[in-house]
Amino acid sequence: MSTTELPASPEFKANHAELMDGVYRWQRHIYDLTRKYYLLGRDRLIDGLEVPAGGTVLELGCGTGRNIILAARRYPGARFFGLDISAEMLETAGKAIDREGLSGRVTLARGDATDFDAGSLYGIERFDRIFVSYSLSMIPGWEKTVSAALAALAPNGSLHVVDFGQQEGLPGWFRSLLRGWLRKFHVSPRESLREVLESESRRTGATFCFRTLYRGYAWLGVIGPRN
């Protein structure tokens, strides 16, 4: 794998890493084929990144590399960095990035999204854009991921998050069915996602935009440049 995979942060949670490797050891081979039907809003997030020329972009929880590859195509002048706690997912992502001829623009590293040192992992401290797509619902202590991402933003940078909403506009039977399915994969939609993002935007003096997609199936939040 020619894509660079840097050493893991020493603080990453070994137990969660083992869990994610176990979940995705086989699923990673069919992940993108199956998830495209219900991980809604990812392409909208990518379109909204509006990465500046020569900008830097970090994806937390990059998984199979699907999003980072699409974003790299969408913004050919930018450099991309991906972080994931699962070695299995990073293996798949690295191979996909190599196949797409993007290894010169994409760097992967293994680490914990709630507590990472970008400088030691990538040799870069701040990013113009950071995005998290359907990962907060799988990360224990996910609120720390939001704080860590904001700390790694460059001046005038922005954090973009898409994840499961509370399906507030959808029938109760659908919500129950979806929640039961997601639990099989250790996924828990975060009821307080909007409140946490809004609180963090106020704490940092940043702008905040939040959208409910598909009758609450998904939520999309952006913490923008400081006022």
Automatic annotation (TrEMBL):
Any single GO BP term: methylation
EC number from the UniProt entry: 2.1.1.-
Enzyme class: transferase
Pfam family, one: Methyltransf_25
Keyword terms, alphabetized: Methyltransferase, Transferase
Domain Methyltransferase intervals: 57-157
GO terms assigned for molecular function: methyltransferase activity
Protein name from the UniProt record: Class I SAM-dependent methyltransferase
